[in-house]
Amino acid sequence: MRKILVSTTLLLALLFANAAQALDSSGTPVVVSPLASRTETASGQPITLPQKNVQVLVSSFEIAPGATLPVHKHPFPRYAYVQGGTLQVTNVETGKSTTYKSGDFIIEMIGQWHQSTNVGADAVKLLVIDQVEEGTKNTVLRQ
């Protein structure tokens, strides 16, 4: 039994070493740092993807200190990586607020009204990724 355990451990180590080398054949180290792994949105909903003609949209946002975005919702998944600043997102349906800072990853709620405010002294910089049905928008403003 011990031989099997040692052999399995060595085999796994060899497989992982080969996978890392495959990333860069020049011998220069490649470091992969996982940032997030989630199955739910910020409000606890399961993440669901568009059912047809998926289009990926990538945008950068810069939100000035003190600025508040209007109340809105997203019909499709939206992901945001906070590159700088401090952002408070409030679900106006539940009243729950969450504050995100540089280095955080946001999986926004789907179909729930919310708004965001820059609560810090610096601009909030976001890298935003939307997955939508082709030709549609992912932000609906509350009237």
Question: How widely separated are the two ends?
Answer: 67 Å
Main β sheet profile: 4 strands, antiparallel
Number of helices: 1
State the order of secondary-structure elements, H for helix, E for strand. Answer: HEEEEEEEEE
Assembly of the depicted chains: single chain
Say how many strands there are. 9
- Backbone shape: globular
Strand content: 25-35%
Write down the overall mean pLDDT: 85
Q: Report the radius of gyration as a whole number of Å.
A: 20 Å
- Poorly predicted sequence stretches spanning 5 or more consecutive residues: 1-22
Structural class: alpha+beta
Query: How much helicity do the residues have?
Result: 10-25%
Walk across the major sheet and give the strand order.
Answer: 1-8-3-6
What is this entry, summarized?
This protein is an alpha+beta fold. Helix content is 15%, strand content 35%.
Write a structural description.
With 143 residues, the protein is α+β, with helices and mostly antiparallel strands. The chain has 1 helix and 9 strands. The strands form 3 sheets. Strands 1-8-3-6 form a 4-stranded antiparallel beta sheet, with no helix packed on it. The chain has a 3-stranded antiparallel beta sheet with strand order 5-4-7, with no helix packed on it. The chain has a two-stranded antiparallel ribbon with strand order 2-9. Strand 4 (86-91) and strand 5 (97-101) form a beta hairpin. The longest helix has 22 residues, at 2-23. The termini are far apart.
Keywords, separated by commas or semicolons:
143 residues, globular, alpha+beta
SSE layout and pairings?
Blueprint: H1 2-23, E1 54-63, E2 72-73, E3 78-84, E4 86-91, E5 97-101, E6 105-107, E7 114-118, E8 124-133, E9 140-141
Antiparallel strand pairs: 1-8, 2-9, 3-6, 3-8, 4-5, 4-7
